């Protein structure tokens, strides 16, 4: 089952309407400070709704990719690796990950999260996609769990599951595309 994650700002009902049109089965609402109770919204829709926190301590906790968060036991889902370095080297992409971090993430059972909204809104898509491809190569090599979700701040930035898979497939990673949209549901159910 595909679960998409988004960052609502008191517009959860708009996200639900768009997600229903896209055929999404479940939504994970991520909040900055504390989780909101989504049971009232749940009664109004057929979607399964979940809530989690960014950079906090909850059952579902997403954290920006930084050295302390990789070692932190509370943050299980890590995103934003592509933003860690400002400039690429002349000889290789500085994608924010390397073999040492990937081995550490594997031993700590961390999950690599790809942020679709960053790709949609980026002004330098070529560099971002190059860094993303570098990270996918390392994810495959070290057999890390991968999640791709929208992280949409606006309902219009939500995408259908097939669009996420198509992006990863277009970068040359068939197996990862199949699993990337299913991984989050394993942790929620």
Task: Put the structure in a nutshell.
The chain is of the alpha/beta class and 189 residues long.
Task: Decide which structural class fits the backbone.
Answer: alpha/beta
**Mean of residue pLDDT values:** 84
CATH third-level topology: TIM Barrel
Please tell me what the overall shape is: globular
**Helical amount among residues, as a percent range?**
40-55%
How does the major sheet shape up? 7 strands, parallel
Which band does the percent of strand residues land in? Answer: 15-25%
- Corresponding CATH superfamily: Metal-dependent hydrolases
How many structural domains are formed by the residues?
1
User: How many strands appear in the DSSP assignment?
Assistant: 7
Radius of gyration: 16 Å
What is the CATH architecture assignment?
Alpha-Beta Barrel
Report on the structure:
With 189 residues, the chain is an alpha/beta fold. It has one domain (3-188): Alpha-Beta Barrel (TIM Barrel), CATH 3.20.20. Helix content is 40%, strand content 18%. It contains nine helices and seven strands. It has helices at 12-22, 39-42, 67-71, 99-107, 116-121, 125-142, 161-170, 174-180, 183-188; strands at residues 3-6, 26-31, 48-54, 61-64, 77-79, 111-115, 145-149. The chain has a seven-stranded parallel beta sheet. α7 runs antiparallel to α8 (174-180). The longest helix is centred in the C-terminal third of the chain and has 18 residues, at 125-142. The radius of gyration is 16 Å and the shape is globular. The protein starts with a strand and ends with a helix. 35% of the residues are buried. The model has no long low-confidence stretch (mean pLDDT 84).
